Amino acid sequence: MRRFRAARGATPASLRRIRNRVKARFGYRLSREQLALGLALFELADKADALRLLREGLLDPPSFEEEYWFFSPSRYRSQASNAGIPVSSQIPPLLHWLIYGIEARLVPYQAFDETYYLARHPSVRQSGQWAFAHFVAVSSARTDGLRAPRKTPIPDAYRRNATRDSAEFYLARERDYEASRDRVLNIIGRDEFKTIVEEFQDSDPSVGNIFASDVDMAPFHDDLHLHEHQARQRLPRKSYDTIVCVPWIRMGGADLVASVLTKSLARLRPDERLLFLQIDSPIVEWPDIVPSGVDVADLSDIFMSIGGHAAERLLLAIFRGLAPRRILNVNSRLCWSVFDRFGERLARETGLYSYLFCWDRTPEGTRAGYPSTYFPSTAPFLAGAITDTFYLRDELTHMYRPPPAVRRRLVTLRTPARMAPRAITVAEEAAGRLGARRRPRVLWAGRLDRQKRFDLVEQIAALMPDVDFECWGAPVLDAPASTANRPANLVLHKPFAKYEELPLLDCDGWLYTSAWDGMPTILVELANMGTPIVASAVEGVCELIAHDTGWPVAAWEAGAYVAALRDMIASPQERVRRARNLQFLATREYCTHKYDKDLAALLAMEESA
Amino acid sequence: MILDRGDELTGAVLRESAPDYQLIRSDHGDPGLARNEAVRAASGTFVTFLDGDDLWSGNWLVNGYEFLRGCRRTTVGHSECSIFFGSEPTIWLHADSEAEGFDPAYLRLDNYWDAMGFGERRVYLEFPFEANDLAAGYGHEDWLWSCVTLDAGVSHRPVPGTVHAKRRRPGSQSAKCADSDVIIRPNPLLKYAWPGPRGDPALAADADGTRQHQVSKNAG
């Protein structure tokens, strides 16, 4: 009979050392039997590492508590308290169990079912032995010398937050695993097995000494099984028509687009089942982003804990499991990498769509980001590549020269303004209040990051000491800049939460200084309100701010912005004229009706495909 | 014996060492299609497979036959365990689809059983292996076959006391599948809404109609 391996380093001397240290530190003298039972308990969890686990459990409980499964300190504390022998903070729970808990027959292993065990072992019932001690001692002795099948531990976070279904799943898994250990003994522990292996070795010596090999039995060795179960527990349904994938739920432009898209899908296809899937990060800054009636699931912690290719495999399995008609990605990196790696095949099962926003720029000024990383490789099989500006669509077309069939599926959906247009523009109303202010006032808001060029705002303010600049923002991606050179006529507030917080009716206009951009949602909202705007003439911004709708600035130096601001401030009439044009453009092109119509046209291509 | 795109040396070895066997040369370049051809060429009630560089325990044929004769459901027998030798030696225990805790959902992530099963020839004729298409990114014909047959109500069970030894070597189909990052073809079992096995092909015609399938217990 083969035997499981002995615990590494578990000699009488090593056990005596542990006993002496426990005596010296806590004043308790453990018997040899108590130590043996403790060691046997850990051998069930990890034969090779049992001695270390025992030592940590008795002498260094904080790390021990996190580490294993066969002794649950929190469960034991609760049991001991209920039994009238509470565990004081001066004694490790394991030591308390060996001294008091064994005598009180408290079972610290949550998967152990005494009734089930006694039913399987009637002789134990008849003898009146404590079932758990029998289980530990006999299991450990029977497995002495052979390798147990590998088992991936259940992550603490899953156990802590387990639903009733999950708890049952985990307990059943433990029982099934115990059965697989029995199988190892019944198969590999038999002398017949040794004979078969010897015959194999005679036929082919390269078979080698297989008794040193790992033993695997699916699914216990594969942590993806646990992660997939956890993911399924969080999915409200078994199938969906549409999945919208997002990285997180923040207050950014892409998050707003995801919200707009989801609401539009819910309007266009009210009878279809829709899932909003959070994939890359657990951040939720904006919980009401999703309309009521749409299912939401956050699997980000699962994917983050796995990482890499395994996370991609799991997301693929979830996509195939839910079997949606379409998947729309709005900036999820993991979803992009799944599209990139498996998309050509996945596209034969479900329609794949992805939003593309503007490129980012490296500090050296080079374009970087998803449009370059993923568009060339995924465009051939995407049912729709969606941009929020015609600029980006045209740039991608110019750069990569996609054939007509791919070009037809590269479409622009202009993100609509969320607020209803004002009957009287901001420019008109502000012009009516001019007498109330002694100095001109210009507003600015944005992230205090390299892209948004707040440094340029400071330069402009320094060149216009007669004008007040009120700004809102905070650094998000970059380190905070120095405030040493900030001019006195510039005031910086924390980011605003609502447009109502801004003194739009008591200003001369808005300043936008980004060095690059797609279509900033803030500009769409300001346009919809009829606000005079001086803006960098960059990329998608030019589709909104032209010479007839605002003051575009094509030269990226402070003097050019100063000239445009001076021109805007000098003429209230011109402010009103251009702001009205801007509002007209926004209400016509950046409205929900048009977004729904354009999205419906894109989805209609599914039927013709 | 099927020699699929075998070289001259292999052919010569086979002719010399097994002159009594019928040797069929094929040009599929695919393990599943080669097995299908073998099944068509066979004439018995049961078939089982042995890949070129693998080994059966001496009791495989007898135990497999006895085991299947004792099964009331349509069943494919597998070795109780397989020893992988060569690179990354491992002992793999085959799961029992009729065991109480068997979870078919794992087949969405990976395979329980290899292709060296023992089953009725009619099962292999009804559910032939699909060809791998590594260029298109589809492979793991044995995994797909596990899904397809389980979906159809076929049980997969280990045959007590039997062992296979399988060489892991670079360049094998399974190594190529791993290297080229292939996935299995779409099939009903991959979906969370999978309703469970459709019904045992043999039991479907059973007059009493009282037998139930345990494998549906954890479906979905």
Descriptive account of the structure:
- The complex is a heterodimer of chains A (609) and B (220).
- Chain A folds into 3 domains: 12-142, no CATH class; 228-412, Glycogen Phosphorylase B (Rossmann fold, 3-Layer(aba) Sandwich); 426-590, Rossmann fold, CATH 3.40.50.2000.
- Chain A contains 27 helices and 16 strands.
- The longest helix of chain A has 24 residues, at 164-187.
- In chain A, helix 16 packs across helix 17 and helix 22 packs antiparallel against helix 26.
- Chain A is α/β, with parallel strands linked by helices.
- Chain B folds into 2 domains: 1-41, no CATH class; 47-203 and 214-218, no CATH class.
- Helix content of chain B is 25%, strand content 20%.
- Chain B has a 4-stranded mixed β-sheet with strand order 4-8-5-6.
- In chain B, strand 1, helix 1 and strand 2 form a beta-alpha-beta unit.
- The interface between A and B is large, with 54 and 42 residues.
- Strand 1 (214-217) of chain A pairs parallel with strand 6 (90-93) of chain B.
What is the mean pLDDT of chain A? 89
Number of strands of chain A: 16
Count of domains of chain B: 2
Q: How would you sum up the major sheet of chain B?
A: 4 strands, mixed
- What portion of the residues of chain A fall into strands of 2 or more residues? 5-15%
Shape of chain A: elongated
Helical segment count of chain B: 6
Main sheet: strands, sense, barrel of chain A: 7 strands, parallel
Strand and helix map with partners:
The complex is a heterodimer of chains A (609) and B (220).
Chain A: H1 12-26, H2 32-45, H3 50-59, H4 61-67, H5 73-82, H6 93-101, H7 114-120, H8 122-127, H9 131-142, H10 156-160, H11 164-187, H12 191-203, E1 214-217, H13 223-234, E2 242-246, H14 253-268, E3 274-278, E4 295-298, H15 300-306, H16 308-322, E5 326-329, H17 333-346, E6 351-356, E7 360-361, E8 367-368, H18 370-373, H19 375-378, E9 384-387, H20 390-400, H21 404-408, E10 410-412, H22 426-432, E11 441-445, H23 454-463, E12 468-472, E13 490-493, E14 509-512, H24 521-529, E15 533-536, E16 551-553, H25 558-570, H26 572-589, H27 592-608
Helix pairs in contact in A: 1-3, 2-3, 2-9, 3-4, 5-6, 13-16, 14-27, 15-16, 16-17, 22-26, 23-25, 24-26
Chain B: E1 2-4, H1 8-17, E2 24-26, H2 31-41, E3 46-48, E4 55-56, H3 60-69, E5 75-86, E6 90-93, E7 118-120, H4 121-126, H5 141-151, E8 155-168, H6 173-179
Parallel strand pairs in B: 1-2, 5-8
Antiparallel strand pairs in B: 3-7, 4-8, 5-6
